[in-house]
Design a protein that fits this description.
Strand content: 15-25%
Number of domains: 1
Mean pLDDT: 94
Number of helices: 7
Helix content: 40-55%
Distance between the termini: 38 Å
CATH architecture: 3-Layer(aba) Sandwich
Number of strands: 7
Low-confidence stretches: none
Strand order of the largest sheet: 4-3-2-1-5-6-7
Length: about 190
């Protein structure tokens, strides 16, 4: 693994522990000689993870849609900032650049981004890992929902198990590096062709 894509909030959240965890992730990524790939903003957890990686001597690549250049306040101190026409191109570019992905606490955008990566993995479009840095149990209810989806036969257990949940940055990076994609078809109950 050479690079890690991080999805996270453009807000710092309501507890300083979220910012501390973002900084720890940025430092850990850089400390392992990995490149950080993220959304390109200098605000919220996005700015914290980027600043920490840069302070630790790491390379940081940001990808930001034109429409968000002012709203998310583009980070001007990155190793490289790519400006792309749309959110779709942002996600596609990040998916191309990163070898594994981590969601830090965030809102709808963070979830949408990591879930798209996970879905592409289920479909066999890539074999890259996806994880949730479960700071202070932030993703506990999401993890319970994913288990519920398996119990209700909307998701296969091997696909649930594709998602990595860790509460510490080093453990997360170890799990991403050790990841092996499952070999199983996504569809449940599909009639034979």
């Amino acid at each position: 693994m050479r690079s890690v894509g991080v999805f996270c909030g453009a807000s710092p959240g309501g507890d300083p522990a979220y910012t501390a965890a973002a900084r720890a992730m940025g430092s850990a990524v850089a400390g392992r000689g990995l490149t950080l790939v993220y959304g390109g903003a200098k605000v919220g957890l996005m700015g914290a993870v980027a600043d920490a990686a840069l302070s630790a001597g790491g390379e940081v690549f940001g990808v930001m849609p034109e429409a968000l250049m002012d709203k998310e306040i583009a980070h001007e101190g990155l190793t490289r900032l790519e400006v792309v026409p749309s959110m779709h191109e942002r996600k596609a570019r990040m998916a191309e650049m990163a070898d594994g992905f981590v969601a830090l606490p965030g809102g709808a955008g963070t979830l949408e981004e990591i879930f798209e990566i996970w879905t592409w993995g289920q479909l066999g479009f890539h074999a890259k890992p996806a994880g949730f840095l479960n700071v202070m149990g932030y993703f506990d209810h999401l993890r319970a929902f994913v288990d519920h989806a398996v119990g209700e036969a909307f998701l296969k257990a091997p696909h649930r198990d594709m998602l990595i949940f860790k509460s510490e940055s080093g453990e997360m990076l170890d799990a991403l590096a050790a990841y092996k994609a499952p070999v199983t078809e996504k569809w449940i109950g599909r009639p034979e062709l």
